[in-house]
Amino acid sequence: MTHAHDHHHHGPHGHAHINLRDIADNRLRRIATFASVSVAILLVGAKMAAWLMTDSVAMLSSLLDSAVDLMASLVTAYGVANAMRPPDRNHRYGHGKAEPLAALLQAAFIVGSSVLLAFEAASRFYHPHEIQNEMIGYGVMALAIILSLALVAFQSHVVKSTGSMAIGADRMHYVGDVAVNLAVVVSFVLYTSTGIAWLDPVLAVGIAAWLLLTSLRIMGQAMNALMDTELPEAERERIIAIVTRQSGVRGVHDMRTRSDSDRIFVDMHVEMNGDLTLRAAHDLSEKIIRAVNAEIPNADMVIHQDPAGLVEDRRDEQIERAEAAEG
């Protein structure tokens, strides 16, 4: 395609106050991953002891869930640390996709644990075990629920502040962990009140299904980022509206968007007066980028300036033709 000239600007890193915000967000990310790993190690140890003492498959399910949480938290810590690295010679877009990669690995861990748990629960239908030392189970579950809720609350704050996909996926683990721990408590209560051993594996199967659904949800979010899925149409329209209301802009076409962990990348063709000088076109592009970053600070923009009225085979039109042919 023909362009008057190209203008490239990294919006999120262009101003000192944005860099200060990034530094604060990165510190929050590090604290969140350290807290997650610490809680996971503590709960794995406590639940291992409780499972050996109670011989409950629901407790085993909770132990497996915490073991997966530990592996996922380690992967998250690695992914977040990599994602925070600045662009380098071999990664000029940065390392943001380390976060969705970490989230995808977490989803794989959850799938594996849910399958193992389902097999273990199925075997208990045929060979039910009595639950022993229920009070130890109650104590460990209370500890797990309190720690998990505290961690989820902190992770929610971090995700709201930073938009971190990997920490968001890790938070899903611990939301699931709270549900698993509550299910174990229910299992103990039901066994104590009814003496029916098969209720324990039934709850374990339910937990396995929950874990599987959680993994599919995380996997979908991660794949969207890794496959450069476009932003939602409402967000695309919002960006186009900001650009087209700038004086001097005659139109916008062939906009492409994608995201990684907490940034969005936008490139577009902006139509402007073909008689503008190179300096004037540059200044208009700068004004557009400032306007977008004022409302969407994490937008990293590339603008191609086109003279208004230029006839060319646009990407938007190619996509429309392809969709019409398929339809």
* Fourth-level CATH superfamily of the largest domain: Cation efflux protein transmembrane domain
Helix content: 55-70%
End-to-end Cα distance:
27 Å
State the helix count.
Answer: 9
Helix/sheet category: alpha+beta
Measured by DSSP, the beta-strand proportion falls in: 5-15%
CATH topology (level 3) name of the largest domain: Alpha-lytic protease prodomain-like
Mean pLDDT over the full residue set: 81
Broad shape:
elongated
Cα-atom radius of gyration: 26 Å
Tally of domains: 2
Q: Total number of β-strand segments?
A: 4
State the order of secondary-structure elements, H for helix, E for strand. Answer: EHHHHHHHEEHEH
Describe the sheet with the most strands: 4 strands, mixed
What attributes characterize this protein structure?
Alpha-lytic protease prodomain-like, disordered N terminus, four-stranded mixed beta sheet, 2 domains, single chain, 327 residues, alpha+beta, Alpha-Beta Plaits, 69% helix
